[in-house]
Amino acid sequence: MARFAQGSDIFDNEDALRDNYTPDELIERDDEIETYEAALQPTVNGARPRNIFVYGETGVGKTLATRYILDDLEADQEHFEGVSIRVEWLNCKDLTSYQIVTQLVNKFREPPNEISPSGYGRGTVNRMLWSELNDLDETHVLFVLDEVDSIGSDDDLLYQLPRCNDNQVTETKVGLIGISNDFTFRESLSARVQSSLCEHEIHFKPYDANQLRRILEQRAGEAFLPDVLADDVIPKVAALAAQDTGSARHALDILYKAGSLARERQQSDVTIENVNEAKDLVERGVIEDELRALPTQSHLVLLAILRLHREGKDPVRRKTIYNVYENAAEMIDTDVKASRTIQNRLSQLSLKGFLAVDERNEGVKGGKYYQYSLDVREEIVEDALRQDRRIEDLI
Predict the structure, then answer these.
(1) Domain ends where: 292, 314, 329?
(2) Helix, strand and coil percent figures for the chain, each rounded to 5
(3) pTM of the model
(4) What is the total count of domains within the chain?
(5) Are 330 and 336 in contact, with CB atoms under 8 Å apart?
(6) Per-residue pLDDT tens for 359-376?
(7) What does the CA dihedral 235, 239, 245, 246 come to, rounded to 10 degrees?
(8) Does some domain include residue 8?
C-alpha cells in the first residue's frame, strides 16, 4: 500500500489559509485602500509620487493591502496615457542601509552585471542607483521597502531616495512606500527623513472579532470542503484571535491547524475541540513570530533581560537593564539609545505580553519604580533572538 495518497475529506484548497494568499477581493480594509488610492493618484496623473509610510502590528494586512492595490495599479496602467509605472519590492529584514541600496541597484541589472553587497563607497553605490533610474524606459518607479524599520538609525537612504528627483534623477519620477511593524520607528527617524518619507501615513489597526469572522468566512469558503466546519468554529476562532492579537494571520493559523488536526484524525468535520487544541499549538508559534518581528533595538533589550534572568537577578529595574543593553549595543556597533527610549521599548514589550511589570513603592525614601521580568519561556526568547543575525553571536 502506498504511504501517501492525494485527497482530503477536510480541505479543498488549503493554500487559501496561507498568510501570503491574495484573495480575489480584499475585505475589511476599505478605508485603508481609499487612503492608498488617494496617495497614489498623483502618480497615475503623471506627477511625482507622494511617499507613503504604512505601519501596524504583524498580521493586520499591511503587506497584503499594499500588494493588492499595487497589482491593480500595474494592471490599470495599460489605460494610462504618457505614464508607465514600475514597482520594485524589497524586504529589508536583516539588511543594512548600504545593502539595501546595492540590492536596489541589482533590481535593474542582469546577473552578470550585478554588484556585490560590499566593496564600494556609499556615494558610489548611490550614483549607480541614480544612473540606473535615469536609464529606465518607465516614467515612474515605486520602491516598496517592507520591514523598513530594520534599517535602524542609519536612515540616510530614507532621505536620499525620496529626494533623488531634486537633482540626481531627472528622467524617472521616484516614490517610496515604507512598511513597518514598529510604531516607534517613525519617532526614531531624523526630522528631515520624517518630512519626506511620511508625506502620507496609513495606520492599519488590529481587526476586531466581527472583521476576523468575515475574513475567515471568505477564506474558509475556498479552503474547506462544503459542510465540514461546525457552525461555531469560525466565530470561536475569530473571538480567540481578536482577544489575543487582532491578527488575521493568527486567526488563519488557528483555523488551518484545527483543520489539520481533523484531517490527521480522519474526522468528517472540524470541531470546537479541534479549535481549542489548535489554539494552544499555535500560541507558541505566534509568540515566536512576534518576537522575531521586533526590531534589533527591542531584541537588545530582551537580550539584556534574558541575561539578567539567567543570572537570577530578575525582576530588575530599568537602570540595570539599561547598563546591560548599552554594553550589548556597543558590542555590535549600533546606536545606543537614550534611557527614555529604552523605557518606551520596555513599555511596548510589556503591552505585547513578553514582560511582566511589578510596580514597587518604597515611600518617601525609595519612591515608586518598576521592575521587569520575562513573561514568556526563556527558550522561546532565545530561539527568536538567534534569528537576528546582528546579535546571534551575543546569545
Answers:
(1) 292
(2) 55, 15, 35
(3) 0.73
(4) 3
(5) yes
(6) 877 666 666 788 999 988
(7) 60
(8) no
